[in-house]
Amino acid sequence: MKRIGILTGGGDAPGLNAVIRAAVKTAINEYGCEVLGIRNGYDGFLEEDGIIPLGREEVRGILPRGGTILGAANRGNPYARKVIRDGVEVTIDVSDEIVKGIEKQKMDALLVLGGDGTLHIAHELAKKGVPIIGVPKTIDNDIGGTEITFGFDTALNIATEALDRLHTTAESHHRAMVIELMGRDAGFITLNAGVSGGADVILIPEIPFKFENIMKTIHERAEKGRKFSILAVSEGAKPQGGGQVYSRKGDEVYVPRLGGIGQVVAEYIEAQGYESRVTVLGHLQRGGTPTAFDRWLATRYGAAAVRLAARNGFDRMVALQCGEITDLPLKEATAVPKRVNVNGDSVITARNIGISFGDE
Ligand code: F6P
């Protein structure tokens, strides 16, 4: 193994830089290998100056830094790229150009740090012969085959702190405080932060809710003298028989943008006579320095990805299973996205301690 490439695709997540640093150090220390960084996801293969050398100097001091030193692109799907041709916007497939770009660099391995979209593309490129290793990144924690993705723990801590802070105003002003949290179609951030931050109601995509059931919890609390309530609501939560709320529609290039369900819930509560406010935590969940757990996990993933490359373990993804780093085929990891187990102990525990999911 003489030369490896690293790229970060999709949205940023805390811990990306820690993976890059660990991969670069392992490649240099253990294999005497040269490392190249690809800028802005797969786009770097098409851009002038899209590829930069990554040595010890370049990764010095980046362990606690959020974001990615390589830049990311979440419209960077080589299979669906919007371009202007003869003054008209068309969507084209540039995957063969990307493959040529990779071949030109003579890389023995390409580490792809990404979420479900980026890893799906990685598997497709692997089928074209690209020596790819996947590393599971996302605050949503929704990638199959791994117990946890890096970025999730940081998002969870930020969301929990936000819930703690909302408690004080909720209590002082006797309000129903709604917080809308990220996670797309997976409720992990909302469930775990909701439990850790003492929410009274948790709404997640996996458990469709009824507005009347939310009100039942708020009324019951008010009757017992608790005149405030905290509601943790996933951006992907939906009412029974209804749909998710989007702030922007999707197309073949852009995934639909979720957002607005928190406002819908807060307005419903107000219409029932309870003062309510909504906070959309948004990208604060992805920003800033990674937690110690995410740095530790990201470092393990980065080093393990290089070891896997040295074993020619291509078209595979590093993963955490039973607390140990292992790997599995990308096809398997991306086949079924991970979702909250609605019959699992986390949901049962939340119900045991009196949290409502709005379903009963
Ligand atoms: O997948 C990570 C995530 O932060 C989701 O939780 C959220 O729905 C989405 O990305 C937001 O994407 P963008 O940064 O493109 O608005």
What's a concise summary of this model?
This protein is an alpha/beta fold.
Explain how this protein is built:
With 360 residues, the chain is α/β, with parallel strands linked by helices. It has two domains: 3-150 and 290-321, Rossmann fold, CATH 3.40.50; 154-286 and 341-352, 3-Layer(aba) Sandwich (Rossmann fold), CATH 3.40.50. The protein contains eleven helices and 15 strands. Helix 1 crosses helix 9 (292-310). The model has no long low-confidence stretch (mean pLDDT 96). 6-O-phosphono-beta-D-fructofuranose binds next to strand 12. 6-O-phosphono-beta-D-fructofuranose is lined by residues 11, 74, 115, 138-140, 182-184, 235, 257-258, 286.
What is the CATH third-level topology name of the largest domain? Rossmann fold
Backbone CA Rg: 22 Å
Spans of at least 5 consecutive residues whose pLDDT stays below 50 are none
Number of strands: 15
**Number of separate structural domains:** 2
Order of helices and strands: EHEEHEEHEHEHEHEHEEEHEHEEHH
Question: Topology of this structure?
Answer:
Elements: E1 3-8, H1 16-31, E2 34-38, E3 51-53, H2 56-59, E4 81-85, E5 88-92, H3 95-104, E6 109-114, H4 116-127, E7 132-136, H5 152-173, E8 176-181, H6 188-196, E9 201-203, H7 211-223, E10 229-234, E11 246-248, E12 257-258, H8 261-271, E13 276-280, H9 292-310, E14 316-321, E15 324-329, H10 330-335, H11 345-352
Parallel strand pairs: 1-2, 1-6, 6-7, 7-14, 8-10, 8-13, 9-10
Antiparallel strand pairs: 2-3, 4-5, 11-12, 14-15
Helix pairs in contact: 1-9, 5-6
